[in-house]
Amino acid sequence: MNALLKDGRRLAARIDASTPAHRDRAIDGLRALALLAVPLGHWMLGGFRLDADGLHNASPLSTFAGLAPASWVLQMLGIFFLVGGYASVFSYRRRASTTAAWLGGRLARLGRPVLGVTAVWAVLLAVLSALGVPGDTLRTGSTLVIQPLWFVGVYTVVTALTPVCVTLARKLGGWAALPLLASVAVVDFLRYGPFAEAMPSWLSVLNILPGWLFAYQLGVSWGEGRIGKRGARLLLIGGGVLFAALLLAFHYPASMVGVPGEARTNSHPPSLLVVALAAAQSGAAILLRDRLGRLLRKPLLWAPVVVINLSAMTILCWHQTAMLAAAVPASLAGAAGTAVAGLTTAPDTVGWILARIAWLPVFAGLLVLIARYARRFEAPWQAGTRAANARRALAGLLAAGFAVFALGLA
């Protein structure tokens, strides 16, 4: 054990020593925190119900409404968009080529891991079906895998708007995000106000872009030096007050994630409550930045942040697969009469919560194992030989087939 600890300290020291002096450790730390919240939120706030037809999605929030505040902590996509906007400013300034080439490079980094996970799952569906895994289980798994990938599509569009966001930040500072908040507020009023019954069902889609662009625009303004401590306090207090008002006076759903059976959801697409939370989180992040940066000067704290950031897209794309790697075999055992607590039992008891907590290290270990092989999808593609082009074309066809199957289930 002592030898392992010494090896760990030496590795952390090497990682720390190889980090460039100009690296903004606080930004990387915030990104790592937001990244870890994604699998933790999905693993703890999502569960399964097993019947004769296979696995079906379920949530402990359906039974334990008091767990909703946990979703306020675990919903950290606002932080992710904030630091994404901040980092994009500096990347955009340093670009060595045209804006189009800069965007192309960033979008390729987002697209390669998505292509990888969807192509692999297209093959897995055929293999698992041949092994006798029930169709309902395959449909549930496909839905879970495809759902987090919506983020990549939205983030792609938001990233493409970086030049516009930079221009607005230089002209308006932090106030450039205010029209986006107002836009979400107007759509929410139309959706939930006195004229709601006359509104078309597709109206909520209008919130997708401004709802997530809000925090990204704040990040761009922060990167441009247009949001300081005073602006951060305004975001923290104003976002917190708006959040409380929406919950207490306007009766928004308390959960930041969708709850099966509930008519309203805050997350898909984002409601004004999501924007209010993003504002408060952004204000807190800006205020804590210097303190976090000093804390991450410690090699043992900095090393895991580096590892997480290097595997960002792998974590996002494959964390649901890690949970399914445990749940699908357990469901086959459950079909034979052996229920597995925390995996195939319904998430409606305190015992399930305790069992699911015990499963978290297993899910994390499976994700690490998967990432060992899946991280190659984050690496740049080799220049186009005929064989490489053929592999990419095949992967594209497989990914498209999986996407059509999974999205057809929604």
General description of the model:
Helix content is 70%, strand content 2%. It contains 16 helices and 2 strands. It has one domain. A two-stranded antiparallel ribbon has the order 1-2.
Quote the beta fraction.
under 5%
Q: What is the residue-averaged pLDDT?
A: 89
Residue stretches low in confidence (pLDDT < 50, at least 5 long) are none
Shape descriptor = globular
By helix and strand content, what is the structural category? mainly alpha
- Largest sheet, strands/sense/barrel: 2 strands, antiparallel
Q: Report how far apart the termini are.
A: 48 Å
What's the total count of β strands? 2
H-E order = HHEEHHHHHHHHHHHHHH
Biggest sheet, spatial arrangement of strands? 1-2
**Count of DSSP H/I helices:** 16
Helix-residue proportion: 55-70%
Oligomer: single chain
Give a summary of the structure in a few sentences.
With 410 residues, the chain is an all-alpha fold. The protein has helices at 2-17, 25-45, 68-74, 77-94, 99-130, 135-146, 150-160, 162-172, 178-192, 208-223, 229-248, 272-295, 299-310, 312-335, 350-374, 386-407; strands at 47-51, 54-58.
List keywords for this structure.
mainly alpha; two-stranded antiparallel sheet; 410 residues; globular
Strands, helices and their partners?
Elements: H1 2-17, H2 25-45, E1 47-51, E2 54-58, H3 68-74, H4 77-94, H5 99-130, H6 135-146, H7 150-160, H8 162-172, H9 178-192, H10 208-223, H11 229-248, H12 272-295, H13 299-310, H14 312-335, H15 350-374, H16 386-407
